[in-house]
Amino acid sequence: MKKVFLILALAFAGIFTANAQVWLGGSVSTVLSKNTKSFKIAPEVGYSLKNVPLSFACAFDFAYVNNPYQKGTGLTLTPYVRYTIANIEKFSFSLDAMGQFGLIDAKGFRVGVRPIVAWMATKHWTAAFSVGFLGYDKMNYYDHGAFVLDFETAAPSFGLYYNF
């Protein structure tokens, strides 16, 4: 029975390796203003399907926030599906359908979409930039929950990824 499981595991590994591109990386963002100080680091892992403009990933966001509405640290889980709209030479434009769920010292959730611009610097390295969010937010300043369109111009996110 162990041999059957080993063969199945190797077969699935071969299928995923042939049809998917695994990547590791993460993003950082910070806000330093008169009323707000925050820092976020979000390591993530994901994979992109070949010949299909979809990627699947999950990040763990470690954040520190100090503003009039909240203060402290927190951990959130952020799974998302990235749909690539267009590729122009080394640049790609995508939308993430994402959810963000509070785990430790973070309350609430948010679900929605965010735009992404990525630059494939080399075969293995990609840099990504995100600013904005459109969706339902019951995590940040909205204890009752609210639909928001937030360009987050004060806190853009920059990510760096290594593609295997």
Can you give keywords for this protein?
globular, 1 helix, 164 residues, single chain, 10 strands
Could you describe the 3D structure shown?
- The protein has 164 residues and is mainly beta.
- It has one domain (20-163): Porin.
- Helices cover 11% and strands 65% of the residues.
- The protein contains 1 helix and 10 strands.
- It has an 8-stranded antiparallel barrel with strand order 1-2-3-4-5-6-7-10.
- Strand 8 (133-137) and strand 9 (146-150) form a beta hairpin.
- The relative contact order is 0.18.
- The model has no long low-confidence stretch (mean pLDDT 82).
Gyration radius, in Å: 18 Å
Spans of at least 5 consecutive residues whose pLDDT stays below 50 are: none
Named at the architecture level, the CATH assignment is: Beta Barrel
Instruction: Quote the beta fraction.
Output: over 45%
Strand order of the largest sheet: 1-2-3-4-5-6-7-10
Coarse morphology: globular
Number of helical segments with 4 or more residues: 1
Summarize the main sheet. Answer: 8 strands, antiparallel, barrel
Give the fraction of residues assigned to helices: 10-25%
Mean pLDDT: 82
CATH topology: Porin
Q: What is the CATH C-level name? A: Mainly Beta
In short:
By secondary structure, this protein is mainly β. The protein is built from 1 helix and 10 strands.
